[in-house]
Amino acid sequence: MSVQTNLKFLLSQKNLNANSLSEITNGELPQPTTRRIINGESENVRDKTLEKYAKFFGVELADLKYGDVSRPKPTIVPDAHLTTFELWDD
Q1: What percentage of residues in the chain have a pLDDT greater than 90?
Q2: Which residue, 47, 49, 48, 38, is CA-closest to 16?
Q3: Is the pTM of this model over 0.70?
């Protein structure tokens, strides 16, 4: 997935657009920057900028850039039924 696709998805999940995102972040995520990214007009966005988006949406930078944020990450749930045992020396 691309940053463009991932950002569009994240915005839609929170029912936001470029304007409302800028408003609720007090301009930290400016409307023109967000609009350029989601319209595919800005391909080489700095990591420093993307980190702000990742932090706001609670995703990893790598997932925003290269992953598919529409698919939940698998989680590992510890198995409560596992037991431990001692190893014996012969």
Answers
A1: 73
A2: 38
A3: yes
